[in-house]
């Protein structure tokens, strides 16, 4: 797996902070963020069209809005790799 680092939240001291990578081979975004608390997790489960619990193999993370440009850049990279 070859990940392309896209960006890290500059407002968090560059340690243990939200980060975005693009996996152009797999066509996926890879995100590191703050773990969601139990209340947010329950809200997400309740509002999901599947109306079920989130599998243990999946998780809810929080990413600050200031990272949207990085997520867009990673999305563009993944999308370009799917076209080629």
Give a structural overview.
The protein has two helices and five strands. By secondary structure, the protein is an alpha+beta fold. It has one domain (3-83). It has a three-stranded antiparallel β-sheet, covered by helices on one side. Strands 4-5 form a two-stranded antiparallel sheet. Strand 2 and strand 3 form a beta hairpin. The longest helix has 16 residues, at 68-83. The protein is globular, with a radius of gyration of 14 Å.
Briefly, what is this?
It is built from 2 helices and 5 strands.
Helix content: 25-40%
Order of helices and strands: EEEEHEH
Number of domains: 1
How many beta-strand runs? 5
| Uncertain stretches of 5 or more adjacent residues | none
Residue share in β-strands: 15-25%
Distance between the termini: 18 Å
- What's the Cα radius of gyration? 14 Å
The shape, in one word, is globular
What is the assembly state of the chains in this entry? single chain
Keywords:
2 helices; single chain; two-stranded antiparallel sheet
Secondary-structure map:
Blueprint lengths: L2 E6 L10 E5 L4 E5 L1 E2 L2 H10 L13 E2 L5 H16 L1
Antiparallel strand pairs: 1-2, 2-3, 4-5
């Amino acid at each position: 797996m070859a990940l392309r680092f896209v960006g890290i939240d500059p407002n968090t001291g560059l340690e243990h902070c939200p980060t975005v990578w693009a996996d152009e081979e797999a066509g996926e975004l890879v995100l590191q963020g703050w773990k969601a608390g139990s209340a947010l997790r329950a809200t997400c489960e309740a509002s999901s069209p599947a109306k079920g619990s989130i599998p243990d193999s999946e998780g809810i993370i929080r990413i600050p809005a200031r990272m949207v440009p990085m997520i867009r850049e990673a999305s563009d990279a993944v999308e370009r790799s799917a076209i080629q």
